[in-house]
Design brief:
This protein is α/β, with parallel strands linked by helices. 33% of the residues lie in helices and 25% in strands. It has ten helices and 16 strands. The strands form four sheets. An eight-stranded mixed β-sheet has the order 1-2-4-3-5-16-6-15, with helices on both faces. Strand 3, helix 3 and strand 4 form a beta-alpha-beta unit. It is elongated, with a radius of gyration of 24 Å. The two termini are 37 Å apart.
């Protein structure tokens, strides 16, 4: 693990212990009661750290630096929730809570930030200003925990925001950096196709919602295949289909649920309009009623250019080009975007944690997901380096980021 500082290397054992403890006690979105209580207990035991419970299961920790200069406030966010799925018992520290699993790396994010808090509290003379650390609940379930924290005033006064996400898509220690739009807009919609049920032997007496639903599903795929330019990226997936009670009964209705990922406001608007137009056409052609319930969720995360430039400089200076990965936009969504919605500059790092030799190659949201724990130390190092660069007493990088807004 060449390039890591001694303070991080010395903290690695406790970092991994914290991650495994969080993994073993996974809790799903909005129910992270034990997780938050444990994090609070750990944070309150660190000298010079002030904590505040800002939502039912979200807590922030504040550290004041003592370095002379012009003070600013840097926010760092880690999500803490697990997914509602059953873990396959591969590790001895697998989840003890049935139906809850950390299969997206949030246990790692929380352990990284917890360790960074301790190391920053032990070295307050290395930064000028405040570090505000957000242990955020419910990233996985819209409307999400970030917007709750923002509405509670937890981010008031923050000058710039940082976050990272461990990713099995990239090799351990790869630091993915991108200027501008990084993640997709996240929307979903429900469809109810209402017809007239009856006996399967007399379809002419019915208004078949199954046939109409099938037509809608096929037509909806043309939004990507025939209504979107090849240079643009859109993902529209109909993931749930519910209808019928028996093989010989035409049902009264069919229910569909779908997910949409887009980049940019205009593309988001066009897809929504196309879904409604297709529904109207299919309803008319099949003499049924189709209702669309659209939920607009997380907007895209947009990385500030000055902060992305800082990240590149830090990564190159510590590891060389080997650990720097220039990113393309990615389709997953992130509610970290709500911390940036008021114009606060932000930067979101994609940190590789994939290692096929260790069996850490399964994708996120998979019951066999495993994380290469060597990646955790890189996360702590980045957060420490970023805080000290931003809160160096001059505020030069923060000022540049603010001027760009």
């Amino acid at each position: 693990m060449e390039g890591l500082s001694q303070e991080v290397l010395q903290a690695e054992r406790s970092l991994i212990i914290a991650r495994r403890r969080l993994h073993e006690h996974a809790e799903i979105s909005f129910r992270e009661y034990e997780t938050t209580l444990w994090l609070e207990t750990q944070l309150n035991a660190i000298p010079n750290v002030r904590t505040e419970r800002v939502t039912k299961t979200g807590v922030i920790a504040k550290i004041e630096g003592t370095k002379p200069g012009t003070p600013y406030t840097v926010g760092i966010r880690a999500d803490i929730d697990a997914l509602p799925m059953q873990e396959e018992p591969i590790e001895p520290f697998c989840s003890k809570n049935d139906g809850a699993m950390h299969s997206c790396g949030h246990d790692g994010h929380a352990a990284i930030l917890l360790t960074a808090v301790r190391l920053l509290a032990e070295s307050r003379d290395t930064f000028c200003g405040e570090v505000r650390c957000f242990f955020q609940h419910a990233e996985e379930l819209p409307p999400g925990g970030a917007i709750e924290m923002v509405r509670a005033g937890a981010a008031k006064g923050v000058d710039v925001m940082l976050a990272l996400h461990l990713s099995s898509n990239f090799p351990t220690g790869a630091h993915g950096v991108k200027n501008g739009v990084l993640t997709a807009n996240v929307d979903s919609f429900g469809v109810v196709v209402r017809g007239k049920g009856g006996h399967c032997a007399f379809p002419e007496q019915c208004k078949d919602p199954v046939v109409a639903a099938a037509a809608f599903i096929l037509q909806a795929q043309t939004i990507v295949a025939r209504r979107t330019a090849a240079r643009e990226s859109v993902a529209l997936s109909i993931c749930e289909v519910h209808g019928g009670t028996a093989y010989n009964i035409i049902p009264n209705e069919v229910v569909l649920n779908a997910s949409v990922r887009t980049f940019g406001k205009e593309q988001r608007r066009k897809v929504r309009e196309a879904v409604h137009k297709i529904a109207e056409g299919v309803a008319t052609a099949n003499d049924v009623m189709i209702d669309i319930d659209w939920l607009e969720s997380y907007p895209s995360v947009e990385n500030d250019a000055a902060l992305a430039g800082m990240a590149r400089k830090l990564i190159l200076g510590r590891y060389g080009e080997e650990k720097l990965l220039e990113m393309e936009p990615i389709m997953p969504g992130e509610d970290f975007s709500y911390f940036l919605a008021d114009g606060t500059p932000g930067f979101f790092l994609e940190l590789g944690s994939g290692n096929a030799d260790k069996g850490c190659a399964f994708p996120h949201h998979n019951s066999k997901y495993r994380m290469d724990e060597d990646a955790l130390a890189y996360g702590v190092q980045f957060e420490l380096d970023a805080v000290r660069a931003l809160l160096d007493g001059t505020g030069r990088i923060i000022g540049e980021a603010k001027r760009s807004k």
